[in-house]
Amino acid sequence: MSLFSFIQDLKYSDIPEHTRYLVSTSLMDILGVVAGAKDNETTRNIRNYAATHYPATDLNCRLLFDGRTVHPMGAAWAGGFSADSLDAHEGHFTSKGHAGATVVPALLALADACRAQGREISGEEFLTVLAIAYETGLRAGVALMDTAAEYHASGAFSGLGVVCGAARLLGMDEEQFLHALGIAEYFGPRCPMMRLVDFPSMLRDAHGAGAYAGVNAVFMAQAGITGGPAETVAENKIAHCWNDLGERWEIDAQYFKPWPVCRWAQPSLTAVTAMLEQHPEITGGNVEQIRVETFHESMRLQGHFPANADEAQYGLAFPLAALIARGQVGPAEVTGDAITAEDILSVSRKVEIVEADDLSARFPEEILSRVTIQLKDGQEIVSPVTQAKGDPATAMTREEFLAKFHLLGSVSFSDERLNQIVDAIVSLPNAKDCSMLFELIMQP
Asked: Where are the alpha helices (DSSP H) in 37-122?
C-alpha cells in the first residue's frame, strides 16, 4: 500500500479498537498538557508572538485556550510550544521522540480554520486524521533515527505527520502531497537534542517548529512550490519503516508520562511513588539522604537547583524532591513559585544521582533506575530496579489518565470544564461535527 493510498483510503473502522482508544486518549492527554500550560511564561510569550507576527487573514483559526484569531501558521507555532512547555506529553521509544505535541496542535489549527470557512468535520473524520498523523509522524521518526546519527529533536520528523494528516483533512492531491512532504522534511528543524538537555530553555523538543514546518509545507505546496522526495519516506533503505502501514500501529508502542518531567527521570519517580505508598514514614522532613542509580542519559539530568521551569522539568533531583516533599508532581510543582520553594529544595540538596553501568547497558531498550532512601532514624529503604510507569508493559489505566488530566488542567480550569472536555472527546466518534469540543478548547 502506498503512503498516499493509506492516507486517503483509511476508514475509522479500519483502525483496531485498542488503537482507536489510544488515539482518543492521546488527544485528551495533549489537551490536558496544554490546559496545564495555559498560563505559564512560555505559553504567554508564544501566544503574544503569534498574535503579533501571524495575524489572521482570510485564513484564520483560534489560539488554544485563548480565543484570539491568528493565521494557522501562528497557531501551529503557539500550540506546539505550549504543549512542549509542560513536559507531560506521550512519547515513543524507537523514534526517541514524540508526535502528539506537534500533530495535535497543528491539526486542531487547520481544522478550526476549516470551520471558520464554513466546512465542518465529523468527529470520526478528525480522529482518523489524528491517527494518520500520529502513525506517519512516528514512522518518519523511526526512519530518521535509522538514517541520522545525531540525536535530534522531535520537531525534525513530526512535521511530516502534520503533512500526512493535513493531506487527508484538506483533500490534497498526490502531487501536492509529495511536494509538501519534501518541503516539510527539507525545512524540518534538525535540532541537536542533547544541547537542550544540557542547557534547558523554552525551545524544548522543537514541537512548535515541527508544527510550523508541517503547516507551512502544506501551504507552500498548495501555492505551487515544489520539494524533492522526502528521504525518510522515499528511500529504499528505510522501506522497512513503511511497508506494513495499516497492519501494525506505531501508536500502540507509545508510552505516556504520569508526571510533567523528562522521560528519563520517570523511572526514579515511579520507584519513589511505590516507596511512598509502602512507607508512609518517608517525608520531606524525615529524609537524610537519597541515592539514585540510573542510566547515563538520566544521570546527566541532575537538576538539583533549577533556575526556571525549563530546568526543573529537564532535571531529576528537583522533581524527585517535589514528589517526596509534596506527594505529587504537577504543574504547581515544576513552574512558578515552586522553583524557589524551600520545602522542595531542602530535599533536593539530599539527592545524589550516579550512573549504574548495568542500567546504562540496558538503555535505550529499557529505561530503568533504582533508588535508596536513608531516613534520619537510620532506616534504609531500597527500591527494586524500576521501569517507568506508562510504558506499554506498565500501562496507565483509564482512571489514571483521567486523574492526570485533572491534575494538569486543574491549575487553569474547573472540574466542570475539564469534565466537559473529556465528555466531548468521548463522544467524538458519533459526533456529526467537532463544534462542542472546539468551543471548549478554544475559549480562555
From this structure: 41-53, 72-85, 100-116
Read off the pLDDT of residues 255-271 as tens digits, 9 standing for 90 and up.
999 999 999 999 999 99
Prediction pTM value: 0.93
Q: How many CB atoms lie within 10 A of CB 327?
A: 12
- pLDDT for residue 200 is more than 90: no
Answer yes or no: are the C-beta atoms of 250 and 92 closer than 8 Å.
Answer: yes
Average pLDDT of the residues of the chain: 95
Q: How many contiguous H segments (helices) and E segments (strands) does the chain have?
A: 21, 9
Task: For residue 289, give the H/E element and its range.
Answer: strand 287-294
- 362 grid coordinates: 540496558
pLDDT digits (tens, 9 = 90+) for 349-362: 999 999 999 999 99
* 82 has pLDDT over 90: yes
94, 97, 191, 383 from 142: Cα distances, Å = 6, 9, 16, 33
Q: Give the separation between CA 85 and CA 207, rounded to whole angstroms.
A: 10
Distance CA 398, CA 404 (A): 10
The dihedrals phi and psi of 306, each to the nearest 5 degrees, come to -65, 145
Pairing type for strands 91-92 and 61-62 reads: unpaired
Q: Are 388 and 266 in contact (CB under 8 A)?
A: yes
